[in-house]
Amino acid sequence: MRGVLTIALLLRLMDSFMIYTEPFVLTGGGPGTATTFLSQYLTQKAVGQFDLGPAAAFSLVYFLIILLLCFVLYNFMKDPQ
Amino acid sequence: MRNKRSWLVLAVYLAFTLAPIYWMVHMSLRSNLAITGTFAWLPESLSLANYATIFTDPAWYDGYLNSIIYVVLNTILSVTVALPAAYAFSRYSFLGDKHLFFWLLTNRMTPPAVFLLPFFQLYTAIGLMDTHLAVALAHMVFNVPLAVWILEGFMSAVPREIDETAYIDGYSFPRFFVRLFLPLIKAGIGVTAFFCFMFSWVELLLARTLTSVDAKPIAATMTRTVSAAGMDWGTLAAAGVLTIVPGALVIYFVRHYIAKGFAMGRV
Question: What sign does the CA torsion over B108, B110, B112, B116 have?
Answer without folding.
Answer: negative
